[in-house]
Amino acid sequence: MRHGVMIFSVIISYWRNITLPWICGILLASVLLAMPGKVMAGAAEDPGVVDAVDYGAYLARVGNCMGCHTTKGGQPFAGGRRLSTSFGVFITPNITPDKETGIGLWNQQDFWQALHQGKSRDGRLLYPAFPYTEYTKVTRQDADAIFAYLQSLPPVSQANPAHDIFFPYNSRALLAVWRTLYFKEGVYEPDQSKSTAWNRGAYLVQGLGHCNACHTTRNMLGASQDNALAGGQIMGMNWYAPSLSSHLEAGSGDWEIEEIAALLTTGITERAVASGPMATVVRQSLQYLSQEDVLAMSTYLKSLTENDTGNAPGVHFSVISGSLRRHLELGGKIYREYCQECHGADGKGAPGIYPALAGNRGVVMDSPLNVIRSVLNGGYPATTAGNPRPYGMPPFQQILRNEEVALVVSYIRNAWGNRASLVRALDVDQGKGGDD
Amino acid sequence: MIRFIILMLFCITNVANANGNAVPDTMAERVKACTICHNAEGKAGRDAYYPRIAGKPQGYIFNQLRNFRDGRRYYHAMAILLENMSDEYLREMAQYFSSLQLPYPHPEQIQMLPEEIELARHLVYSGYPERNIPACSACHGDILMGVEPAIPGLVGLSRAYITAQLGGWRNGGIMRIQTSDCMSEIANQLTENEVNAVAKWLANQSVSGKPGSFNELSPELVDRCSQTILEHGGAE
Question: Which parts of the sequence bind heme c 1 (chain B) (predicted)?
């Protein structure tokens, strides 16, 4: 995981011809609604009652502080993780309470200043690789709780190297200009016309969850233009974070709230699986969300597609010519040899185990990057309480050449009624690398 | 409410039926992502460095899975594959592969000069205590099938794999963080000739028997390799 963390690189599929799961989903929802006690059982308790440290620990999970502030195999929260961006390499700092190398000398006000204003203890401006552009929305009460938790951790003495930022971005004066242009300080303000759940969800998604750190297109200066979660290439990672506000990508307007919640907390549902960096977010953060918070988040995410006037997938199907068909058939041959056993001759996969490729928005998105990477690297969905023993996909770059990957990806993007652009060997090559 | 539950059950049954591609609820199915390279028989691909993992000590496999996941042992494909896996699940996979009883491939038939054979046998069974190189068999067992719970066997592997692993140990490419690891100390003492000889000789051996027991190890080697044997979940 680099840079921001909340990413929805979700592979999604539709089974329009299977209606029973839907009916069941609705029935299940009704059952849950009929048993409010169950729904609320895991909800976060009143922070005023619970020990601030425990509540802070929970919030640190929601914000996934540990995800960035821990290097692979390293001490939790001791930093040292390298975030490679087009502006240089950022090294995440040690946020354990070690007095020399961590934030042991900080007080509540210092921490608030960092989170809310993007300023370090000594007043230095922080680079927005630390997503204070989102964290500024966090309330003072929550910030204090997170600080109390961080201060309760065992101090780890670990001095991390300095950032290595390219000219001219290494000028902190330039950072001041950047902030004037792109940073708006301010705690989240509830929209009185919306429900409590919607506002809680918006607070979590826009603030602590910092979903916008990945699910956005950044301009040349690395700034996200708005809070629309409209998707984009993840900075410093070779993954595309799909739009959460478009029906064509990972928008969830036509999902049940419970199904969105299930995807966020278990990493897999009957018709979608969180893969790549999103699987990491599920494992490190989202699976620990209280039922109340994850339903709130889902309520907000579902509402994001309200203004989407884009066409539903499957509308613009052009006719496939004979020569194109022959080209695709080359990929079809590879599909039958390597993919069909799990994903099926009909591309419908096995719901909740092997994702369907037919009608899968992750497969037919404009950007073929994620599907290319899934074929190259394979992977297992995150192990979560709801999916402790997932089934996996092999890393086919061990077996297939770039040309073959291009053929099979082109095939699955155009089989079973799917229609999307063809993929070249060069695209496959560009889908390699970009990992730690 | 009861009607509701019955209706739910009915639906769940139907969902299961609607799933046209029945997926076996087995470990064999769950590790298909592994066995495409470490193929179903657990044999090494002769053209690549995919070692057999069937029948290796469970603790050894579990340690390697965690090392790959946590970046202590580096191989890109394994790192990505295991990125979001829990210890519990990795332990279950290790147990599965460890329990597989599958026939071993025929040994390779690599031509060796008599002095090469002698050199290899000396390293394997006697070592060079004056250079701080213990005999391979002192840790990996008399029959070189490894020692439970965490020391791997050395036979049934290809020459290419053994050479690459010893090379990796020597240049720090295998265990990036554990620089003080016992095996990297030993590999660093070996000359190129010794590496080649021992890799050829091991690949030529036929395989029989099972991993030895932990009690066979001498206390001083347990001490020297404690990081590998104990800290990373070997003996529990």
Answer: 34, 37-38, 78
Summarised one tens digit per residue, pLDDT across range A114-137 is 999 999 999 999 999 999 999 999
Spatial separation of the C-alpha atoms in residues B150 and A36, rounded to whole Å: 49
Q: In this complex, do B79 and A395 lie within 8 Å of one another by their Cβ atoms?
A: no
Domains of chain B and CATH, by start: 28-226 (1.10.760.10)
Residue A226: band (very low, low, confident or very high) from pLDDT cuts 50, 70, 90: confident
Q: What residues of chain A lie within 8 A of the CB of B12, using their CB?
A: 24
Contact B8 A27 (CB under 8 A): yes
**B206 contacts B161 by C-beta, under 8 angstroms:** no
* Contact yes or no for B84 and A381 at CB 8 A: yes
Hey, are the CB atoms on A383 and B8 less than 8 Å from each other?
no
Q: Which strands form A272-274's sheet, in the order they lie side by side?
A: A10-12, A272-274, A268-269
The pLDDT confidence band at residue A64, using thresholds 50, 70 and 90, is: very high
Query: Is the model's pLDDT at A42 over the cut of 50?
Result: no
For chain A, give every domain's residue range. Answer: 1-312, 322-430
Return the H-helix or E-strand segment holding A165: strand A164-165
How confident is the model over B151-158, as a mean pLDDT? 89
Give dist(CA A84, CA A91) in Å, integer. 9
CATH 1.10.760.10, applies to A322-430: yes
State the residue for tokens 């295991």.
B82
| Chain B, nearest residue to A394 by Cα | B33
A-B contacts (CB, under 8 Å):
118
- Cα gap B51→A224, rounded to integer Å: 46
Residue B87: closest C-alpha in chain A: A383
